[in-house]
Amino acid sequence: MRKTLASFALVALGATSAAAQTSGPDPLELGVDAGITIGLGDDARTSIDLPVSSARIGFPIGTRTSLEPKFRINILTGDGDTFTSYRAELGLLYHLGSGRYPGAYHRAGMYLRPFLGVTGYANGNSDSNGLLGIGFGFKHPIVSRLSSRFEANLGHHFGDGDTTELGLLAGLSFFTR
Fold it and tell me: Which residues of the chain have pLDDT under 70?
């Protein structure tokens, strides 16, 4: 009986030790996205940004949630003129998870991403607008710390000349552990 209790205690202690080694803060998600943005309405513009349109960093704040700042800047020059456009977003990812990848909420499965931000440009004149939108996407693991990411989103620009746009993104996410 004592040997059985001692064995059980050692197994329980070993399992606790192993769990302590695998637990800890969730990893950061570093990513880049290629994108197509299609303007909707009368003053519509389409933008195709390949191979990379934006960079992002995901900070896990809960089991299924993370905050994700995202940045994009484009600079075009020619004939002595320079045109600069920028976009900064803050998204809140809610990971719906996947039964196929249990416990890997930040690495795999579907997610929702409401976001807000600012967009603008400068070319001698400058202007900026507020941005509000929502995205729906899917992450699929490639290898242990790398996932692909696909998203469709709808955004609305507030300010001079309100516009709405549809965005399609394809990206890679690298996890820090």
Answer: 1-25, 43, 98-105
**How deeply is 126 buried, as exposed, middle or buried, from its count of CB atoms within 10 A (0-12, 13-18, 19+)?**
exposed
The structure tokens 């416990």 sit at: 103
Q: Are strands 81-97 and 65-78 parallel, antiparallel or unpaired?
A: antiparallel
**Taking the chain, what is the end-to-end CA distance rounded to the nearest angstrom?**
42
The tens digit of pLDDT for each residue in 70-80 reads: 999 988 898 88
Dump pLDDT digits (tens) for 35-72.
999 999 876 788 888 889 899 999 999 888 999 999 99
123 φ, ψ to 5°? -155, 50
Residue with tokens 């809140």: 92
Of 151, 164, 156, 125, nearest to 40 (Cα)?
A: 164
For the chain, how big is the Rg over CA atoms in Å? 22
State whether residue 28 is helix, strand or coil. Answer: coil
Other beta carbons less than 10 A from residue 121's beta carbon: 15
Residues 51, 29: Cα–Cα separation, whole Å? 19
